[in-house]
Amino acid sequence: MPQTIHSHRLPSGLTLVAEEMPWLESAAFALLLPAGCAYEPADQLGLAQLVGEMAQRGAGPRDSRQFLAELENLGASVSAAVSVAHTSLGGAMPAERLPAVLALYADLVQRPHLPPEQLEDARLGCLQDCRAVEDELGRKTMKTLRQRHYPEPWGRSAEGTEATLQSIGIEDVRRFFRMHYSPRGAILSVAGAIDWPRLVDDVERLFGAWDAPGPQPPAEQPPPRGYCHLAVDSAQTHIGLAVDAVPYGHSDYFLIRAAVGVLSDSMSSRLFTEVREKRGLVYAVQAVCHSLRDRGAVLAYAGTTAERAQETLDVLWAEIVRLHEGITDEELARLKGRIKRVLIIEQESSPARASAIALDWYYLGRVRTMEELSAIVDGLSTDAINAYLAAHRPTSCTLVTVGRSELVPPAAARPASG
Q1: What is the pLDDT of residues 281-322, one digit of tens each?
Q2: Is the alpha carbon torsion for 368, 370, 371, 377 positive or negative?
Q3: pLDDT band at residue 197 under the 50/70/90 scheme
Q4: What is the rounded CA–CA span in Å between residue 83 and residue 63?
Q5: Which residues make Cβ contacts (< 8 Å) with residue 342, sequence separation at least 6?
Q6: CA dist list (Å): 113 to 24, 103, 110, 119, 339
Q7: 370 close to 347: Cβ distance less than 8 angstroms
Q8: SS (H, E, C) the chain
Q9: Residue 6 neighbours by CB under 8 Å, 6+ apart
C-alpha cells in the first residue's frame, strides 16, 4: 500500500511529521525533546531522568493522580525514556482519542506542576535504577563501554550516579525543564488512522504557543578508549568491545548494518554459531550497530565464565576481524529475508512507525518510506559490502571487561589503554 507521509514545521521550531495508516484503528505518537543526558551539568548526572519523572506528576488542571487516570480512561498506553540526545515521550491509543491524549501532553511540556513535595519519591525511583546498573553487570559493562568509546558527554547513560542524584534540588529540576523542554529542535511524530488537516489544526492549537530557549551544544572532551577492567568478585566475566562505524545518516550505513547482521542478527549468525554453538564459550553474545547523530560504532557484548573469559575475548575479536574478510551470497540472502520480515511487521504497528519516523527525521531531516528501505535492502550486494569491509578494517578498539581478573587485550586495544 502506498505510504502517505506529511510534515509541518510550527513557527516555534516544533516539527510535526506523520504517516497515514488508514487500515488501522489505532494511532500513536512520539515526542522527542532536546533534553537528553548529554545536556546535564557534569555534577548533576541523572538530572534529565529525574526531570522526566517529575514532569509526569501532574500538569495543567490535573494533579498526578488525575493525569494518569485520564490517560487510562482514554485507553492510552504511554511510555517515557531518556537517551543521550533526547527525552522521549510516547503513547498509543484508539485513533479517535489522539487529540485528547495530545492535549494532556501539551500540558505536560508547557504547564507541568513539578511538585516539590514529590521530589524525594521521584529521586528514589531514579536511585533504584542507578543501583540496578551496579547489580546488572552486563548493563554496567556496556554503560562503561559507551562512556569510554564516545567523547564526553555523548557516551553518557541516563541513570547518573547516587552522589549526583542526591545533590539535585527542585530549582535544578525547574531550570533544566525551562531550558530543555523546548520546541526548538523537538519532533512530534504521529502514525496511524489520522486526518492530517485536523491533526495540524490540533497541534497548532495545543502547541502553537509553546516557547522555551532550547539547549546549547555541549562541549566535547576526547574519549579515553583503550582497555579498562572493572574488578568484581563474580564467577562470570562480561566483555564489551567497540569499534568505530558510520552513523545512521551516512550513505554507507546499510553496508555496515548488513555486515553486522551477518555477524549477529540470528541463531545462524557467525557469533552465535562460532562463539556459542561450536565452542560453548558464552551464555550470551551479540553485536549491534549503535548510532549517534554524527558518529557511530559497532558494540559487541559477551557474557561467559571467568575460566573461559580469555578464550571468549580472543574468539570474539577474531570474528570481528574475520568479518572484514567478507561475507557470502548465502549469508546476505538470509539477512535480506530477515530484514524484510521486520519491515513488514513494522508496517502493521503504529507505535513502531511513530518511533521510526521521528528518528528518521532526527537523523536525516526526512522520512524513508518502506518502499525506499526495501529498495535499499534489495540493492545490497556482497561486492559492495565486502568492498566497504576491506576498506574499513578495524585497527583500534575500545575494550571493557568486568569480572575477577584482567584479560590480555587484543593489540588494537592497547595503544590508548588507561
Answers
A1: 999 999 999 999 999 999 999 999 999 999 999 999 999 999
A2: positive
A3: very high
A4: 27
A5: none
A6: 35, 16, 10, 11, 44
A7: yes
A8: CCCEEEEEECCCCCEEEEEECCCCCEEEEEEEECCCHHHCCCCCCCHHHHHHHHHCCCECCECHHHHHHHHHHCCCEEEEEECCCCEEEEEEEEHHHHHHHHHHHHHHHHCECCCHHHHHHHHHHHHHHHHHHHHCHHHHHHHHHHHHHCCECCCCCCCCCHHHHHHCCHHHHHHHHHHHCCCCCCEEEEEECCCHHHHHHHHHHHHCCCCCCCCCCCCCECCCCCEEEEECCCCEEEEEEEEEECCCCCCCHHHHHHHHHHHHCCCCCHHHHHHHHHCCCEEEEEEEEEECCCCEEEEEEEEEECCCHHHHHHHHHHHHHHHCCCCCHHHHHHHHHHHHHHHHHHHCCHHHHHHHHHHHHHHHCCCCCHHHHHHHHHHCCHHHHHHHHHHCCCCCCEEEEEECCCCCCCHHHCCCCC
A9: 16, 17, 18, 19, 20, 196
* Neighbour-count burial for 149-187, b at 16+ CB within 10 Å, e otherwise: bbebbbbbbbbbeeebbeebeeebbeebbebbbbbebbb
* Residue 317 identity (one-letter amino acid): W
Q: Is the pLDDT of residue 277 over 50?
A: yes
The CA distance from 182 to 12, in Å, is 9
Going across the sheet that includes 15-20, the strands are 4-9, 15-20, 187-192, 26-33, 87-94, 77-82
Band (416; pLDDT cuts 50, 70, 90)? very low
Q: What is the mean pLDDT of residues 383-387?
A: 98
C-alpha to C-alpha distance for 204 and 244, rounded to whole angstroms: 41
Q: Report the alpha-carbon distance of residue 153 to residue 217 in Å, rounded.
A: 11
Q: What is d(CA 392, CA 296) in angstroms, rounded to the nearest whole number?
A: 14
Q: Indicate the Cα dihedral angle 296, 298, 303, 304, nearest 10°.
A: -140
Residues sharing a CB contact under 8 Å with residue 195, sequence separation 6 or more, in sequence order: none
